[in-house]
Write a structure and sequence with these properties.
With about 110 residues, the protein is mostly helical. The chain contains four helices and no strands. It has one domain.
């Protein structure tokens, strides 16, 4: 695996951690629950630490946009699946637009 492909792998893993901490915030109950809070903080740390090596070969703007974009998409989907957020036609369409932007960034870098 080349450095460029490895950077995308790091970005994907950082994005998964981003989904984990963003979703985990819901379970912390305002940081009053110990273990959900601990797991959420751990996911935050992992998200930043794993992003770092991707920045060696990817532009910071692209890396950050991809990580937060995938995080937003994953968190929105989990919001629908876990928390009963509405899945109106507009929500999946907007998620699709975010995904299109992520794919576009991958294609141009």
């Amino acid at each position: 695996m080349g450095a460029g492909q490895l950077a995308w792998t790091y970005l994907f893993l950082a994005s998964l951690a981003e989904v984990g901490w963003a979703t985990g915030l819901k379970y912390t109950d305002g940081w009053t629950r110990l273990w959900p809070s601990a797991w959420t903080v751990a996911a935050m740390v992992v998200s930043f630490v794993v992003l770092s090596p991707a920045l060696k070969t990817r532009p910071v703007g692209t890396a950050y946009a991809v990580r937060t974009g995938v995080g937003a998409v994953g968190t929105a989907i989990l919001g629908i699946l876990l928390f009963g957020k509405p899945a109106t036609a507009v929500r999946p369409a907007c998620i699709g637009l975010i995904l299109a932007g992520i794919v576009g960034l991958k294609l141009v870098t």
